[in-house]
Amino acid sequence: MPDVRLASPQGRWILFTTVLGSSMALLDSTVVNVALPRIGRALDADLAALQWTVNAYMVTLAGLILLGGALGDRFGRRKVFVVGVLWFAAASLLCGLAPDAGVLIAARALQGVGGALLTPGSLALIQASFHPDDRGRAVGLWSGFGGIGAAVGPFVGGWLVDGPGWRWVFLLNVPLALLCAPVALRHVPESAGGKAEGRFDVLGAALGAVALALVTYALIEAGEGSWVVAVCAVAGLAAAVAFVLVEKRRPDPMMPLGIFASRQFSAVNVVTLCVYAAFGGFFFLAALQLQVVVGWSALAAGTALLPTTALMLLLSARSGELGDRIGPRVPLTAGPLLCAAGMLLMLRVGPGASYAADVLPALLVLGLGMVTLVAPLTATVLASVDTARAGLASGINNAAARAAGLVAVAALPLLTGMGPEAYRVPDAFDDAFRRAMALCAGVLVVGSVLAFATVRRPAPDCCRPECRTHGSVAVPPLEAGSRLEAGRERGSRAR
């Protein structure tokens, strides 16, 4: 049984290093959007290159995050976490030194690999290190401090872009990693899941990442209409089919398809796809709209987006408590509708827009919608499966949200008629942004209807989320998979 107490010096060091490591990945997923216009001008990149700057990271992160958790369980969570931190730092250094868009995109893909190694290990280390009596409070502090990091991300990104330059958005990760890794090696105890049998599902992870990459490429380059795009689209769908077949036949798959036998779990993941596709598209385009069309600086645009994250950070725990009392159906129906209303309010944001009259009301409504739905969404995912699969269910849901966001970033410019140079032409970008907001609102309405039709109140003794405070607007919270052991420990103490 782990015995580190939160009040001890070692406990504080463990909390510090896990928060620092997870914040690196959280910050990177939010600050890069603010830097996109400056990156495009500095590297003479078209809109497709900016899409890939976001999506190259998401492809490898979404495709490999389940494998990253399995590697930690097998070889040691601290070891894999430290490798992920150092890998992430090396890729960040390459991003910051990139001489052109091609190198930047390749480095971003490598960054995603590092993120897939460190992200699952951060919370798992807390679960495995702290005494059961302190574990809940440690998880709460971890998620709260992580939320603060996510909240200040766009502000820090804007300040760096307008000050030292966009390259420091990536270079900042290097000193953070050089601080995080030695502390982890010195103060964090090693732990593993104890499962040494079986093979890693490397083939499944590779097929999943390849399918996402090829489909994303086809969507981004579809305007070219070349035979290469058609071949990539077909190959991407074929890779997706092969992924399903491999996962179905392997004795130890990365994503056991049997988990989707739960109708509730399947339905909630479809709702997740709808919701986070809209969120991914919104935050990619909103940062560009505020700079390209409204004419604000990167700092002003990043600061303007803070209300959504701040509301999540302040109210997500209370939203989870409300969902526990009234059930998830109402929050998961009303939340997407509020978000859709917020995105429709963004139609007022154009040339000469006022922050107080135009931008802030839209972001407040959107933030309240996110607060309403995110905590009950996570709770419903965990409640849909047995306790032993809680960590797996959370990982699948987290990966689904990331995949939905990257597909939205790839597809929205195509669906709204954005040309390669659209972000350089304010009037053209403004027209496309308005069409995109209407599409995102429509997808959210679909998610709301689906939630109303399929979500039911979970059983009283189901799994409950441990991450009650959440500040990320990009993905739902990731829950660790040691619940079965934790439940046994609590039961033993009660007896």
From TrEMBL:
Endoplasmic reticulum as UniProt keyword: no
Primary localization class, coarse: membrane
Gene Ontology molecular-function annotations: transmembrane transporter activity
Stretches assigned to the Major facilitator superfamily (MFS) profile domain: 14-459
TM region(s), chain numbering: 12-36, 48-68, 80-99, 105-126, 138-160, 166-188, 200-220, 226-246, 267-288, 294-317, 329-347, 359-383, 395-416, 436-455
Compartment(s) where it occurs, according to its Swiss-Prot or TrEMBL record: Cell membrane
Gene Ontology cellular component terms for the protein in this record: plasma membrane
GO biological process per UniProt: response to antibiotic
PROSITE patterns: MFS
Keywords tagged on the record: Antibiotic resistance, Cell membrane, Membrane, Transmembrane, Transmembrane helix, Transport
Keyword Hydrolase: no
Protein's membrane topology: Multi-pass membrane protein
UniProt name for this protein: Major facilitator transporter
